[in-house]
Design goal:
- The chain is mainly α.
- It has one domain.
- It has a two-stranded parallel sheet. A two-stranded antiparallel ribbon has the order 3-4.
- Strand 1, helix 1 and strand 2 form a beta-alpha-beta unit.
């Protein structure tokens, strides 16, 4: 799982994921990774959470959340499957995008959590 290490909320949630969900793979901020080695770009990573499967398939946003849950502890796996259902996925996408756009306003959010303007990456 690849998240935005500049965002306080993302970093806090990454800690919760590591502690409670215990996925079998690394949970890392994109700023510490060789993104090309994972088939990722700075733009993709600033836009949404990324999950890279063992076979190299990349999932973003709500599908990254679903795949993360499916790869985690047994009790979290059904939630990942539910998120992937038609209708639920669309709703999860709307919720994901709203949270991503407003994360700097949520508890624990900071100005560094703000999404960059469309077409720009945080490294620009």
């Amino acid at each position: 799982m690849v998240f935005d290490g500049d965002c306080g909320i993302c970093t806090k949630l990454a800690g919760v994921i590591t502690r409670y969900l215990r996925p079998p793979a690394a949970v890392e901020p994109w700023q510490r990774l060789d993104l090309a080695a994972y088939g990722l770009t700075v733009e993709a990573c600033t836009e949404a959470l990324q999950y890279v499967d063992a076979d190299g398939t990349v999932y973003a946003a709500e599908l990254a959340v679903a795949r993360l849950l499916r790869a985690s502890r047994w009790w979290a796996r059904p939630a990942g499957r539910v998120i992937e259902l038609p209708g639920v996925r669309q709703l999860a996408g709307v919720i994901y995008r709203w949270v991503a756009r407003n994360r700097q306003r949520l508890p624990g959010g900071t100005p560094a959590c703000a999404m960059p303007p469309a077409g720009q990456s945080k490294s620009s």
